[in-house]
Design a protein that fits this description.
This protein has about 1150 residues and is an alpha/beta fold. Among the domains are: about 90 residues, Immunoglobulin-like; about 180 residues, no CATH class; about 210 residues, Glycogen Phosphorylase B (Rossmann fold, 3-Layer(aba) Sandwich), CATH 3.40.50; about 170 residues, Glycogen Phosphorylase B (Rossmann fold, 3-Layer(aba) Sandwich). Helices cover about 35% and strands about 15% of the residues. The strands form nine sheets. Strands 23-20-17-14-13-28-27-24 form an eight-stranded parallel sheet. Strands 31-32-30-29-33-34-35-36 form an eight-stranded mixed sheet, with helices on both faces.
Length: about 1150
């Protein structure tokens, strides 16, 4: 059907460009092309980019303007803002599985549009297109309108295509990359934190090395640190370097990020090496040994000398015939690598020929596919194959490093480092010239540790061209880097969002930030990393916008936390406040080793090199004060003697104890990964790299691993190093000892009780599932509840919940307090003091699995105490005081709120008084919804700042749309509208309203015996003392034949009932959220809910169900009648219900709770608040 086009709005309400002055026009033009005319510096100050820099960056993007040409600028602005309307679709669209996406689509006004997704597995999915909403623009004399293609949330991750066909019959398409909602790969390290060693692999050699650390040395390193419990070995970038006699020293300045450095190859480990004559083997080994001896003599890594012996050896081994099995393996490698490998090998040959007076690779004839380049490919086939073969050998040997690392017990294995880009005039520049910007360099603006800025001499991606090619170059590079690795560290991960472009010939201060489609870049990264099973760590230091770190965390990308940078108001940040989704380390390769940093060698070096723009004496004082503050923080925790905090000329023993103390301090942080620099393990003082310097200023990247005196430390030395063993073992022990404990208190109802029976309900599920999710985040959870049956002589019964994976189990403790039998809720208030004493005694006793939690020097850190419901508040507050831990409280409901929503209800004065005391004592009130925040503020005067909204989750593994569907009612209910109530049978939950509503519907249908077309099943048991007799009420209303009953059932059976129901009804008088509603929606069943409290948020009206505004039988009858009148419309809400529930995971709840806890100040010993 042809649609009516809305009226034309030429400029989307934006100001006419011709009405603006030149500076404003230039800034508007820059923003239209993703260039930021202003940015916030690392110190928080606003910075403005010079006009000259903006003009040069725009020119590199293909926009040539003068900063003072108003007319030309206005025209360029108009063109930039109109250009997207010419494209039917963006060239690449990024989606996230589990999230709906609305994609803008531009077509001729009024034309019908059909959209479809062609999935990577060959299926075709029709997708909907929304009507335009007053978005029409006159483009080149033609009215074009913007509609939106709706990408469904259930699209599977993968590489798909989006197609749009308009009424004219033309079809446009775009790459559609769908990423996982969040990387799952960090999960094992959230369950149990891990640590590893960070090494500049080239700097650690052995007796069998050829002047540089190689793959064999790296494998040995992995095995050494694995013996001490390490989970990973982080290595420097292993990207390809110059194939000739002069490879660059910096591993962060490769010729290609997609391919590997030949310098990692250990020639004697190549299988064909053994087939050489013995004399020839000895000759090659001898040549390598001479380079190694020279390294030991000079104390500098000479990559040119290494290349001089390595390449002839590789060429000779390449000539050795391979077995059929090896030849087949080589063929498979070539096929998997594709034509990019052939081009890289060809470039290597051309590059070698170009030493001195070779061909101009910028000439189209010498470009990829050019006539001259192809001639060389044929004529020099053997030379080309040599470089192709070297890549295979390097990949094989690095795969062996990973295999040996995992075999040694590492959970991750090798973590590889990904550089920001490749340098100018390199293989990547030659092969990827269409998606790189040759006139720009990437770097960083001035910041605290690099006050002149940085220029890394690397070409940036061209944002538009990268998108037009579907990010293929980025994807292919990632696939190669991820192959065979367990983890990846992305240097300057902020480059996924924006890069600092520096015009050729300009200084690093004269650049500008250029934005990238970070959603597309993240989608490519996370999709490929998830498929490779690789953990992603992003180096997110430097200048960035705060939301960037949040977005990376949402995607499951770990950040980076460096001890020296973690400060708040000039003081060290307490470890508990570090990010969990991060890799924490004391230092980085751009800072001195810790021994050197403690001495301030970085200040001396920067002063000597003239890198400071501030007063050096002041900087030296600042550095010394900073060091003292961190050592004092370690001493306050008993990790270092007070006398060893301020020792200006510390000897080796004291310095080692300081280094160990700082690493132990860091290991108390909740960060998923902890990195220990190999240089710290041996007492090295020298910095590996000083940013902003040349080789003639400082020997960057050529310093071999050494001890505090500068003596070389070999792989063999490291294996026997007592100091390295002490540091590694200390970190491993601290990580295991500092597993945080979380204590949950639920006096009146056990988290293990069957929901729907007695007082057990959604709160039981909440307490249990929250604890399981927190355990899966590495917290050792202890749940305390009152015993309702006899327990052992120690006054407690202990049970454990195994939550799977490597997470600590949840411990559930039934404590004796009062009668060993169920007690009416109204009588439990009198047992609170006895329960508190029992909890304090048990937690301080040896009966606690793993030892006492309260008291004693060896007691583990208590991260928080969380009280549930008012009856648990006084106990939770007492435990928090004893543990010096934050006191969290979830009310679940309050007397004031219940009485407001149900005027007939009266709550005891003791409860009202107790709740006022609880909300005053709690450090943080964890609430389910904004409605609860409002109630607490209006009814109990709780400031918003002391609340944190954390909606509960649903068990999305049990409650799913897929699975058995078993209706518990009568078989003859087929065809009737099936309504399910699941919960406690009490007046407050409202099941009587549903029974009465059936009576209304029967009366409307014709009275006794008439079939209203609705059946109700009640799943639950009587609760409370209101004596609600539903069966009697059903008989009284004349609907006994329409209502069936059953007792509560376990979660899998309940999920089956949800799937079989047409409607799940929640007529409660009040709910802080409503877990049943979430669980039902997760099963694909829309929910009919009373519009009260948290149900307003738990059920989205018109999206995942509908709201009933009044708590009367007539209102519920009207709502059911409306559903009956259009059952298809009601059923159509099912997918929306699934999507809404999918946004409620217990994992997200746990992450939010731990984030909130980190922001709560720790209680000091001896203080009650």
């Amino acid at each position: 059907m042809r649609r009516q086009a809305p009226s034309v709005e030429p400029h989307d309400g934006m100001e006419d460009p011709m009405a603006l002055e030149a500076p404003a026009l230039l800034h508007r033009l820059a923003r239209a092309h993703g260039v930021q005319p202003e940015y916030v510096g690392q110190d928080g100050s606003a910075q403005t980019v010079p006009d000259e820099a903006l003009v040069k960056v725009l020119a590199a993007l293909g926009v040539s303007v003068r900063p003072d040409g108003v007319a030309a600028l206005a025209e360029a602005v108009e063109e930039a803002e109109t250009a997207p309307w010419r494209d039917v679709l963006p060239p690449t669209v990024a989606a996230r599985s589990g999230h709906r996406l609305s994609v803008p689509c531009h077509v001729a006004a009024g034309e019908p549009v059909v959209a479809r997704v062609r999935t990577e597995d060959g299926r075709t999915l029709e997708v909907s297109v929304s009507e335009p909403v007053s978005e029409v623009r006159l483009v080149d004399g033609v009215e074009r309108e913007r509609v939106h293609v709706q990408i469904p949330a259930d699209l599977a991750p993968g590489w798909h295509r989006l197609e749009v066909t308009s009424g004219s019959g033309s079809t446009a398409s775009a790459v559609l990359v769908c990423a996982p909602t969040r990387l799952s790969t960090p999960r094992p390290f959230l369950e149990r934190r891990g640590w590893g060693a960070a090494a500049q692999g080239y700097s650690v050699t052995s007796a069998d090395s050829w002047g540089i650390g190689d793959a064999a040395d790296m494998a040995s390193l992995a095995e050494i640190v694995a013996r001490h419990g390490a989970d990973f070995l982080l290595l420097h970038p292993l990207h390809a370097v110059e194939p000739g006699p002069h490879p660059a020293d910096s591993p962060y300045s490769p010729v290609s990020r997609r391919f590997l450095s030949a310098l990692v190859v250990h020639v004697p480990s190549i299988p064909e090496f053994a087939d050489l004559p013995a004399a020839e083997q000895a000759e090659l080994r001898s040549a390598g040994a001479r380079v190694q001896a020279e390294l030991e003599r000079t104390g500098r890594i000479d990559r040119a000398a290494v290349a001089a012996v390595l390449w002839p050896a590789l060429r000779r081994v390449h000539e050795v015939p391979r077995s059929p099995e090896r030849e087949a393996a080589y063929a498979r490698f070539r096929a998997e690598a594709g034509p990019g490998l052939d081009d890289f090998a060809l470039w290597s040959v051309l590059r070698l020929d170009g030493e001195g007076t070779g061909p101009d690779l910028a000439d189209p004839a010498w470009a990829p596919g050019g006539v001259e380049a192809e001639r060389v490919r044929v004529e020099r086939a053997t030379d080309v194959d040599l470089h192709r073969w070297v890549q295979w050998i390097a990949a094989e040997q690095l795969a062996d490093v990973q295999e040996r690392a995992r075999a040694a017990g590492m959970r991750m294995g090798v973590m590889v480092d990904l550089a920001v880009g490749a340098t100018r005039e390199t293989a990547d520049a030659w092969m990827l010239g269409d998606v790189l910007v040759p006139t720009m360099s990437v770097g960083a603006p001035p910041e605290l540790f690099n006050q002149l800025g940085q220029d890394w001499s690397q070409h940036p991606w061209h944002p538009r061209r990268l998108a037009e090619t579907g990010y293929a170059a980025f994807r292919d590079m990632l696939r190669t880097v991820l192959r065979g690795a367990g983890g990846i560290r992305m240097d300057h991960v902020l480059g996924l969002f924006r890069l600092w472009w520096i015009p050729e010939g300009a200084g690093a201060t004269q650049g500008a930030y250029v934005e990238y489609d970070h959603e597309a870049m993240l989608a490519v990264l996370t999709l490929e990393a998830e498929r490779a099973g690789v953990v992603v760590v992003g180096e997110d230091l430097g200048t960035f916008e705060p939301w960037v770190q949040r977005r990376l965390a949402e995607a499951g990308v770990l950040g980076t936390s460096i001890l020296w940078f973690e400060q708040e108001d000039g003081e060290p940040t307490p470890p508990e406040r570090y990010r969990r989704l991060a890799m924490a380390a004391v230092n980085t390769h751009d800072l001195p080793p810790t021994a050197g940093y403690l001495e301030g060698v970085q200040v001396d070096l920067r002063e000597r090199l003239g890198l400071y723009t501030v007063d050096v004496a002041q900087e030296r004082r600042r550095s010394a004060e900073e060091v003292r503050a961190f050592l004092a923080a370690a001493a306050r925790r008993g990790l270092l003697a007070e006398a060893e905090v301020d020792v200006p000329d510390a000897g080796p023993e004291v310095r080692e104890r300081q280094i160990v103390a700082l690493h132990r301090l860091l290991a108390q942080a909740p960060s998923a990964l902890h990195s220990v620099a190999l240089v710290d393990a041996v007492g090295e003082r020298r910095i590996q790299n000083q940013p902003g310097t040349r080789q003639d200023q400082y020997p960057n990247w050529t310093v071999p691993l050494g001890d505090g005196a500068g003596r070389m430390v070999s792989v063999e030395d490291l294996a026997d190093s007592a100091s390295a063993a002490r540091l590694f073992d200390a970190v491993d022990a601290e990580l295991r000892a500092s597993v945080p404990v979380g204590i949950g208190v639920s006096l009146h109802t056990s988290p293990l009780a069957q929901p729907g029976r007695g007082d057990a309900g959604g709160m039981n599920v909440y307490v249990r599932q929250a604890a399981v999710a927190l355990a899966r985040r590495g917290v050792r959870m202890i749940l305390l509840t009152r015993a309702e049956e006899p327990v052992g002589p120690d006054g407690a019964r202990v049970r454990t919940l195994d939550v799977g994976g490597q997470a600590p189990p949840v411990t559930v403790v039934d404590l004796a307090a009062g009668p060993s039998a169920p007690v009416a809720k109204a009588d439990l208030a009198g047992l609170r003091d006895e329960f508190t004493r029992a909890a304090l005694d048990w937690l301080a006793s040896d009966a606690v699995p793993g030892g006492p939690v309260l008291g004693g020097a060896d007691a583990p850190p208590v991260a928080f105490v969380h009280g549930h419901y008012w009856l648990s508040g006084s106990t939770a507050a007492a435990l928090a005081r004893a543990a010096h831990a934050p006191y969290l409280q979830t009310m679940h409901t309050t007397a004031a709120a219940k009485m407001l929503e149900d005027p007939e209800l009266r709550e005891p004065a003791a409860r009202i008084e107790a709740e006022r005391g609880i909300v005053g004592q709690a450090d943080l009130l964890v609430v389910n919804s904004a409605a609860e925040v409002a109630d607490l503020r209006e009814l109990l005067d709780v400031p918003r700042a002391r609340t944190r909204v954390l909606p509960p989750g649903a068990d999305l593994e049990t409650f799913t749309p897929d699975g058995a569907a078993q209706w518990p009612g009568a078989p003859e209910d087929d065809g009737a509208l099936r309504v399910l109530f699941a919960g406690r049978v009490q007046r407050h939950k409202g099941p009587h309203l549903l029974v009465a509503a059936l009576g209304v519907l029967r009366e409307r249908a014709g009275g006794a015996g008439a079939d209203p077309g609705v059946r109700l099943h009640v799943n639950g048991a009587a609760s409370g003392d209101d004596g609600l007799d539903l069966a009697g009420l059903a008989a009284q209303e004349g609907v006994a034949d329409l209502v069936t009953f059953s007792g509560p059932v376990p979660a899998p059976a309940l999920a089956s009932q949800f799937r079989a129901a047409d409607v799940v009804a929640m007529p409660s008088a009040s709910e802080t959220y409503g877990l049943v509603a979430l669980e039902a929606q997760a099963c694909g069943t829309p929910v009919l809910a009373h519009r009260v409290g948290g149900l307003v948020y738990a059920v989205l009206d018109g999206v995942s169900g509908r709201h009933v505004t009044a708590g009367t039988p007539e209102a519920w009858a009207d709502a059911l009648a409306e559903i009956l009148a259009d059952r298809d419309a009601w059923a159509a809400l099912g997918p929306g219900a699934v999507r809404h529930a999918a946004g409620h995971s217990w994992e997200a709840y746990a992450d939010g709770l731990l984030e909130a806890v980190a922001a709560v100040p720790r209680r000091s010993p001896g203080l009650d608040a």
